[in-house]
Design goal:
- The complex is a heterodimer of chains A (388) and B (250).
- Chain A is built from 15 helices and ten strands.
- Chain A is an alpha/beta fold and 388 residues long.
- In chain A, strands 1, 2, 3, 4, 9 and 10 form a six-stranded mixed β-sheet that branches. A four-stranded mixed β-sheet of chain A has the order 6-7-5-8.
- Chain A is globular and about 85 Å long.
- Chain B has 250 residues and is mostly helical.
- In chain B, 76% of the residues lie in helices and 0% in strands.
- The chains are: A alpha/beta (388), B mainly alpha (250).
- At the A-B interface, helix 1, helix 3 and helix 15 of A face helix 1, helix 3 and helix 11 of B.
Chain lengths: 388, 250
């Protein structure tokens, strides 16, 4: 009899704990510290921290920000475990789980947060699409968007008889790289890894398999180019050499807020420089974005809402943000207008894990596997990733 | 009582929560969809592949492991004296860190495009505990039983087949169950063997990969449904094993 009562007691405790867990939707504002998670970038987090400090200065509420950099798997664990101690996430479109935050509803809807609706409505349509789910819920607010493009010194390029501005597909770029190499070795720079990444994300918008003549041609032509010289392995900002007439063109990555490095071109004297995006057959360059989203289980929902509202308000008043669709918020210099045209037509591509294709592609370029092996393995991994 | 509380807090309550998550559409909106997640999971071709590979490991590698462990234990207990010198070698895989073992295995067998190295790694890692358990069981057999058997004319191989092995059937059954449960935990070894990728060759894609990948995709419902399915599968195997053991003992 005693053991029966003990069993009933334990069962009751278990059911109580389970039901508590099922109804855990606390929105209490009790802590004096908000936790902001990010998976990669220090630059962005510092800018957001400074905006936070500015906000705290305005509101005088006495809150602190505690940023924490987490690997993707730990960030996924925080989200899935409904950890109430994390308040805001800084998510990159290149995080493999970024798309699923929207797709699986793992966000706090921001529709009624002041200034957020106005901000999202003011953004480019492609940014709105990425920030809103199928039911019209605003799942995150964009804080940064970037597009890779080629910066061309048109004066130098015309001397070399290279009309880079006509390039639109990755295969076109490869053709111009060959021409530039024939003109002068080292007169161009490509960031190979990102060139592959962006080209493949564009390709996957319209294709479900890599076993196509288009992909084979791209892979084989790129392999021929990577053996020419080391100019395909550029990974820095080459604005200086281009400005000093040392280059015909270079691959510019608009990856971080702090490393744009293009301000020098923001004048009408800089009309000898042109911006060439890789649009692919869809006519739309691949964009990268960073978003803030609120943990739906945060203990500090109210403060997190206030912070997001503040960021949205600030972003609404930014000039040359490349997030807002209103052209009046941009300088009227030619370079900025060209960039505006590039961003206007962009699409945010949520990344697939690098191990699905990128690493295989690099192995193929390094001669470690044949094109047929690379294609069949990439198709297998892509299907597994998409359908498991 | 303390262990009951520990099991309840760390195993039973989380299990019921996972069961609950497997019956809803989303852990954020929480609408009941009952068995839809299970139907989707069972219809998923990669879940089927993972289940097939996990069962194949049990069907092929576990019998080999148990047979080898039994032979080695017999030799250690009754047979070749020289093998006793190697006793430590059979236990060594248990104390070698998994990462080191996987690294050695990967270096040795990277050119083999087959599931065989993973099976061999599983056998190598688990044979130590099986040998220890079986040798302990053999050492508990009363010597008078052997003397009586010898008087009846049973010696050598016949003695072990007819007398020794049947006596330790409960231990063999327990070791088999332990190995089956361990076979569901082969993920760590496989993950490291294939260089830390979440997408191994099809033949090595087991249930843990399916669950781990769905976890990284924030697909809690697939994860929960497949976890519950796996736990039920393990439960059935354990109950089946215990029933067989009891029937054989009677």
């Amino acid at each position: 009899m005693k053991s029966f009562f003990l069993f009933v007691l334990v069962l009751f405790c278990m059911l109580f704990c389970v039901s508590c867990g099922m109804n855990n939707n606390s929105n209490d504002v009790s802590d004096t510290e908000n936790k902001l998670d990010n998976t990669n970038n220090y630059g962005e987090i510092n800018i957001l921290k400074s905006m936070w400090c500015e906000w705290v200065g305005y509101t005088d509420v006495g809150f602190n920000i505690n940023d924490e950099q987490l690997p993707s798997n730990e960030q996924a664990l925080v989200i899935l475990s409904q950890d109430t101690t994390h308040d805001i996430y800084l998510i990159e479109s290149e995080d493999p789980f970024a798309y699923n935050i929207r797709d699986k509803g793992a966000f706090y809807p921001l529709n009624d947060v002041p200034y957020v609706r106005e901000y999202i409505d003011a953004c480019f349509p492609f940014v709105q699409d990425a920030a809103t789910d199928d039911n019209g819920n605003i799942c995150m607010i964009p804080v940064y968007v970037g597009v890779d493009f080629f910066m061309v010194n048109t004066t130098n390029a015309s001397k070399a008889d290279i009309d880079m501005c006509l390039a639109s597909t990755p295969t076109d770029v490869i053709k111009y790289v060959e021409e530039a190499y024939n003109y002068q070795s080292g007169s161009y720079v490509i960031h190979l890894f990102r060139f592959i990444q962006k080209s493949l994300l564009q390709y996957l918008r319209e294709n479900n398999s890599f076993d196509t003549p288009e992909f084979r041609a791209f892979a084989e032509e790129l392999k021929a180019v990577v053996t020419l010289d080391d100019s395909v392995y550029g990974d820095a900002n080459y604005a200086d050499p281009l400005y000093n007439d040392e280059l015909l063109f270079y691959h510019h990555q608009m990856m971080t807020l702090t490393n744009i490095g293009l301000e020098r071109f923001y004048s009408n004297d800089a009309d000898i420089y042109d911006v060439v995006p890789i649009t692919g057959s869809s006519g739309s360059p691949s964009a990268y974005a960073e978003f803030l989203c609120i943990n739906p289980y945060s203990d500090n929902i109210d403060t997190a809402r206030e912070f997001v509202s503040f960021i949205a308000q600030q972003k609404l008043n930014e000039s040359n943000s490349f997030l807002l669709a209103d052209i009046k918020t941009y300088s009227d210099v030619q370079f900025v207008q060209s960039l505006y045209t590039v961003f206007e037509s962009a699409t945010i591509d949520f990344n697939i894990p690098y191990e699905i294709l990128h690493y295989l592609f690099i192995d193929y370029l390094n001669g470690m596997m044949s094109i047929d092996d690379m294609i069949s393995e990439a198709d297998r991994l892509l299907n597994m990733y998409r359908y498991e | 009582m303390p262990s009951l509380i520990g099991i309840a807090v760390f195993f039973v309550i989380p299990y019921f929560r996972v069961l609950y998550y497997s019956l809803i559409d989303n852990q954020f909106s929480r609408n009941f969809v009952w068995l839809n997640n299970y139907i989707d999971t069972f219809q998923n071709e990669y879940f089927q592949l993972a289940l097939k590979n996990s069962l194949l490991l049990i069907i092929t590698a576990v019998p080999v492991l148990i047979t080898l462990a039994l032979l080695i234990s017999l030799c250690l207990s009754f047979g070749i004296r020289k093998l006793q010198v190697l006793r430590a070698a059979f236990v060594l895989p248990m104390v070698i860190p998994t990462a080191s073992a996987a690294l050695i295995w990967s270096a040795a067998f990277s050119s083999i495009d087959s599931v065989l190295p993973v099976y061999m790694l599983f056998i190598w890692k688990n044979i130590g505990i099986c040998v220890v358990l079986m040798t302990a069981a053999f050492s508990c057999i009363d010597n008078s039983l052997f003397e009586a058997s010898a008087l009846d004319g049973a010696t050598g191989f016949k003695l072990h087949i007819k007398i020794t092995v049947p006596i330790i059937v409960p231990t063999i059954a327990f070791t088999t169950l332990l190995s089956i449960v361990n076979s569901f935990r082969i993920f760590r070894e496989t993950f490291l063997y294939y260089g830390g990728t979440n997408y191994p060759p099809d033949y090595s894609y087991t249930l843990q990969y399916y669950m781990n990948n769905n976890f990284l995709k924030l697909d809690y419902q697939s994860l929960a449904a497949s976890s519950i399915t796996t736990s039920v599968l393990v439960l059935f195997i354990v109950i089946g094993g215990l029933v067989l053991q009891r029937r054989y003992s009677q």
